Amino acid sequence: MKPTFVPDNDRVSTKGFLTIGIPTVQRKGAVYIFSTLESLVNNSRPKTKHAWEVKIVILFADTNKTYNDELAKNITIVYHDLIDQKVMHLVTIPGNYYPDLDHLKITYNDSTVRVKWRSKQNLDYAYLMAYSANLSQYYLQLEDDLLTREGYLDNIKEFIKEHKKHDWAMLDFNESGFIGKLYHSPDIVKLATVLKSFFNEKPCDYLISDFLKLMLQQKRYYYKPKLFRHLGLHSSLSINKRVTDHHFKR
Question: Which of 13, 36, 178, 216 has the maximal Cβ count within 10 Å?
Fold first, then answer.
């Protein structure tokens, strides 16, 4: 079964509390996404069948279509009930979406390989956010190689409640990078526009800072202890190695 881009008029049954966006690409020698999904689903499973507060949108962003199709088939086998309930969405990117990524300008003195990788990443995030806008009240950006702390949904709700008096555009559930960032769902269309408009100029975490300035958020709000930890060593950029974070730190 191939990945499914669900039409707009059929993608929502009921509006949830939180949509989690996960782009997935092939990592050399490792597949983490099943552990990630198991962690997210098990730690947010409702007491009754139709009370899901979380929607999970998986974007198959690898350049290898065969890999995308096979992974989507396997995810569908494991999570067919959640896909049927529109709790889990499987999304692909049309081939004509990307501009020419082989002739990009070099910025920040990065290598051509890294510039291409981070530029595509910006475009992937933009597509994922555009699809996910208004599926739920809030949107959380994650990756496909994470585990979450038990009760993460309650932790997120409590942190939102703590900051209800602040005019925030983003809450941080991870101190660095692009993961664990929470937004009001209507705002991710604006962020998607920034990411797509300046995909070549800056990495995504730099563009976050620009977005927050545009949204008039003057300070960052960090949640501790962290809710998410990385699973493995293999980055989606094969020339880099990610340090394994074996334990949640308090």
Answer: 36
